Amino acid sequence: MVLDVREKAAAATSRPRPRREITTAFVVSRIAVLAVAAAILLYAVPPLAATGSWVSLALLGLASAAVAGLYLTRRFIPAKYLVPGTVFLIAFQVFPVAYTVTTAFTNFGDGHRGDKAAAVTAIETGSVRQAPGSPEYALTTALRADELVFLLVDPVTKKVSLGTAEGLSPLEGAQVGVTGKVLQAPGLTVLKAPEAAARGQEISALAVPAGDGVIKANGLSRAVQGKAALVYDAACDCVKGDGDTWTADEGQGYFVNAKGEHLAQGWQAGVGFGNFARVLTNPTISGYFAGVLGWNLVFALASVLGTFALGMGVALALHHPRMRGTRAYRIALILPYAMPAFAMLMVWRDMFNRDFGLINQLLGANIDWLGEPATARLGVILVNLWLGFPYMFLVTTGALQAIPRELTEAASIDGATPWKAFRRVTLPLLLVALTPLLISSFAFNFNNFNAIALTSEGGPFPAESPQVGATDLLITYTFRLAFGAGGAQFGFAAAISVFIFAIVALISAVAFRRTRKQEEVYA
Predict the structure, then answer these.
(1) CB–CB of 96/498 below 8 Å?
(2) Half-sphere exposure in the Cβ direction for 306 (13 Å, CA)
(3) Are 118 and 269 in contact (CB under 8 A)?
């Protein structure tokens, strides 16, 4: 008998295993992933090779080879489903967060976008001044492949020269019009006036070496030869000119003189915790940070609790068994959720207008809704309440469907009033299901830039502090500080973003911890 069992087991193990059935959806998904990987590879290889980014090119090649090897084999089925999600997670979650954090430790922004060599070139070419008696040229801009070049016509000899970043060379076969503009040139694409205007910054930045100076554009139809007033001296690592000397400050990414003044053009450099220290120590920032944070918390909490209370109340009313016409009510109630938020926010802004706004006309009042701090804050909360309660209504309706009616019926049989049954049975079960959504809604409203920027624009602003308004959230305050009149300061904006992330993460962590305890109680 033991022998029979062994023979059956041996026969079962020697029987060929059935092949996994390959579905059409699996084949299509495999082809789609391979096609996307191939498209990314073909798109990224030329620019990476042109810039000499060999490390990035090698990593891209290895990743593409790994993806191709994975999806061209029948093995590793679980990995075929995990890899796309992991790639999207890294690309859209991990990388942006890591890039923001690393940017917070730099001075990246206007005037600090390139390296030191690019800054030196920009300083020297930007300080070019026309010397007395230096030649002037009629200028025409053109493209040689993708390179911007100058076509320079000498007004005396009428000869045409080709000007590039490498230098000046004669150009034969060019056709010159009566105005001195080049109409055609062999091997070049002459730019028309609108095309040249669109490349104004590139034209202004191009400097053609000529003799002991350079040729720079003066507008779109004229070029002059001059010399740089500021010259970089590698021996002292400084810029000299105009009777002054600016020494390189590697920590700040600027050339600074003895008076502490710096040249406008700098380079990207690591500043350590300088941006974070600026947030905490600069009185124009730290002096208002606590007040803005307090209103930010009030706005987020009022928005979440208000929308949840209103949405839950409407959902409970429509969930009642005696309620009729619930479908029509639900369609009407989700209309605010279906409307484009940015458009409705601007409509609400006009409705709050003091002179011709609909609200004042209906009330017969003359309230300056967005001109006073109290009414402006009340107004933005009401607008956010109107926009947000349909979402809470939808999720609460779904959660109510999952709560058995037998629980509330049993509570009423035990003598509980409707209010006590709701407070002791329905609400706790709703909170178990909806608390994660409430936490995510709080995080969203904490950074709800559109709700403020498109209605009150952060105002009203007091006369003594036009930099921070009564309805400013941290995100709008950050935007004004980092991208206001002083230009873009991406490093500083990233530092404040890290502060905001830490605050939201701390509040969310505490809330999730309390949620887990609540789930254990009602499990």
Answers:
(1) no
(2) 17
(3) no
User: Beta strands 231-233 and 222-228: pairing type?
Assistant: unpaired
What are the tokens at 337? 């959720």
Task: Work out the end-to-end distance of the chain between its first and last CA atoms, rounded to an integer number of angstroms.
Answer: 51
Alpha helix locations (H) across 366-404? 373-401
Strand order from edge to edge, sheet including 238-241: 231-233, 238-241, 244-249, 254-256
Does residue 369 sit in helix, strand or coil? coil
Query: pLDDT digits over 453-506, tens only?
Result: 999 999 899 877 777 899 999 999 888 888 876 678 899 999 999 999 999 999
What is the C-alpha to C-alpha distance for residues 171 and 149, in angstroms, rounded to an integer?
A: 12
Query: 10 Å Cβ neighbour count for 333?
Result: 18
Tokens found for residue 27: 């084949």
User: Could you tell me which of 276, 282, 255, 277 has the C-alpha nearest to residue 266?
Assistant: 255
Residues 390-416, buried b or exposed e (16+ Cβ, 10 A)? bbbbbbbbebbeeeeeeebeebeeeeb
Compute φ and ψ for 410, nearest 5 degrees.
-65, -40
User: Cβ neighbours of residue 41 under 8 Å, at least 6 residues apart?
Assistant: 60, 61, 64
* Stretch (H or E) spanning 84: helix 77-89
Q: Is 364 exposed, middle or buried (0-12, 13-18, 19+ CB in 10 A)?
A: exposed
CB 489 within 8 A of CB 110: yes
Phi, psi for 414 (deg, rounded to 5): -75, 0
Which tokens belong to 234?
């590698």
User: What parts of the chain have a pLDDT lower than 50?
Assistant: 1-3, 5, 8-9, 12, 17-20
Write out the two tokens for 69: 């090897």
Tokens of 89: 């997670």
Find the radius of gyration of the CA atoms of the chain.
34
Per-state percent for the chain, helix, strand, coil, to nearest 5: 55, 15, 30
What is the model's pLDDT at position 416?
A: 80
Alpha-carbon torsion (27, 66, 91, 83), positive or negative = positive
Place of tokens 């041996």: 10
Residue 327 three-state SS:
helix
CB 91 within 8 A of CB 191: no
Read off the pTM.
0.75
- Report the amino acid identity of residue 476: T
Question: Hey, what are 412's tokens?
Answer: 């009423």
Tokens of 438: 């409430």
User: 451 with 472: CB under 8 angstroms?
Assistant: no
Query: HSE (CB half, 13 Å, CA atoms) of 32?
Result: 9
3-state secondary structure of 196: helix
CA distance 71 to 472: 50
Report the alpha-carbon angle 453-459-460, nearest 5.
Answer: 165
